C-alpha cells in the first residue's frame, strides 16, 4: 500500500504544482489517475518514483517512509514507473533492456511472450537497438514490457495509451486486466482514456495540483462522464479522446 501525506512540490521557476495531496493507493487494485492537462498527474507520479523530491509531505510504501530515498533505492523496493515519454538508450538492445528490468537472462520464449503482450512481433524487435530508429509507439510499448518484466510492488504507468495504435491499445487493456487479476502489489495507471478508467477499481481525479475527487469507479466515473467524458477539461459531451 502506498500512502501520500500532505505532499507538495514547487517548480524550480516557482509555482506550486502539487498542493498538499493526501492519497492512499491500496494493494490488489487498479487505481486510475485522471484529470485535465497540466493538473499535476505526471509530477505526482515522478514524486512517487523518486524522480522529483517533494518540498514537504511524506511517501510511505507498506508503512516504510521512502520520501528520502532516491529513484534507484525506490526501484529496489519495487517501485516502477513507465514514462509518458520514454527515454531512448543508445547501445542497448530491446533484449538488454527487458533483461535488465527482469534482473536476469530470459529465455527467448519469455522475451517473446512479454513483447507480444504489448503488441510487438518479438522476433523482429529483440535485437534492435533502443535508439532513435524506433517509433514513438514502439518505444512506448517496449517500456511497458520492461515494467511487466519487473514484477514490482507498485507499478505506475503514465498515459500508456499515448502514441499507441488502436490494436495495441486493445491489447494493453487486456494486459492491465491480467495484471489486475494477478496483483500482489498496487497498479496505478495515469490516463485520459474512458476504456482504462472503466476497468479501474478506484479513480482519482487531480486538477490544479489537488485531488478533486477520489473513490470507487462506480462512484467517480458517472460524475466524470456527466462532466464531459474522461477529460474534465474537454467541452461538455466530449468523450475525452476515447477510442470508442
Ligand atoms: N519542471 C517544471 N518546471 C515548471 N513547470 C513545471 C515543471 N514540471 C511540471 N510543470 C508544470 O506543472 C503542471 C503540471 O504538469 P504535469 O505534467 O504534472 O501535468 P499532467 O496532469 O500530467 O498533464 P497531462 O495530462 O498534460 O500529461 C504543468 O502546468 C506543467 O507545465
Automatic annotation (TrEMBL):
Keyword ATP-binding in record: yes
One Gene Ontology term, aspect cellular component: plasma membrane
Matching Gene3D superfamilies: P-loop containing nucleotide triphosphate hydrolases
Keyword Nucleotide-binding: yes
Keywords, ordered alphabetically: ATP-binding, Nucleotide-binding, Transport
Molecular function GO labels: ATP binding; ATP hydrolysis activity
UniProt cross-references to InterPro entries, sorted A to Z: AAA+_ATPase, ABC_AA/LPS_Transport, ABC_transporter-like_ATP-bd, ABC_transporter-like_CS, P-loop_NTPase
Residues in ABC transporter domain copies: 2-233
Membrane-traversing stretches: none
Record-linked PANTHER family: CONSERVED COMPONENT OF ABC TRANSPORTER FOR NATURAL AMINO ACIDS-RELATED, LIPOPOLYSACCHARIDE EXPORT SYSTEM ATP-BINDING PROTEIN LPTB
Name of the protein this chain belongs to: ATP-binding cassette domain-containing protein
Organism phylogeny: Bacteria, Bacillati, Bacillota, Clostridia, Eubacteriales
Amino acid at each position: 500500500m502506498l500512502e501520500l501525506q500532505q505532499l507538495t512540490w514547487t517548480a524550480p521557476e516557482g509555482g506550486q504544482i502539487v498542493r498538499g495531496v493526501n492519497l492512499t493507493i491500496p494493494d490488489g487494485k487498479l487505481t486510475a489517475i485522471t484529470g485535465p492537462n497540466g493538473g499535476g498527474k505526471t509530477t505526482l507520479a515522478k514524486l512517487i518514483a523518486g524522480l522529483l523530491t517533494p518540498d514537504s509531505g511524506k511517501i510511505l510504501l507498506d508503512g516504510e517512509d521512502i520520501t528520502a530515498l532516491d529513484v534507484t533505492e525506490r526501484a529496489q523496493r519495487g517501485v516502477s514507473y513507465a514514462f509518458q515519454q520514454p527515454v531512448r538508450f543508445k547501445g542497448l538492445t530491446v533484449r538488454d533492456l527487458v533483461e535488465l528490468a527482469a534482473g536476469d537472462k530470459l529465455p527467448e520464449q519469455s522475451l517473446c511472450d512479454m513483447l507480444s503482450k504489448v503488441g510487438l512481433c518479438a522476433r523482429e524487435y529483440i535485437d534492435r537497438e533502443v535508439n532513435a530508429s524506433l517509433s514513438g509507439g514502439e518505444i512506448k510499448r517496449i517500456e511497458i514490457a520492461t515494467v511487466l518484466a519487473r514484477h514490482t510492488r507498485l507499478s505506475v504507468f503514465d498515459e500508456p495509451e499515448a502514441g499507441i495504435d488502436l490494436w495495441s491499445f486493445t491489447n494493453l487493456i487486456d494486459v492491465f486486466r491480467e495484471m489486475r487479476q494477478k496483483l500482489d502489489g498496487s497498479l496505478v495507471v495515469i490516463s485520459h482514456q474512458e476504456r482504462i478508467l472503466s476497468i479501474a477499481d478506484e479513480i482519482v481525479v487531480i486538477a490544479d495540483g489537488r485531488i478533486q475527487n477520489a473513490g470507487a469507479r462506480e462512484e467517480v466515473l458517472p460524475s466524470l462522464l456527466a462532466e464531459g467524458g474522461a477529460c474534465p477539461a474537454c467541452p461538455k459531451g466530449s468523450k475525452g479522446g476515447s477510442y470508442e
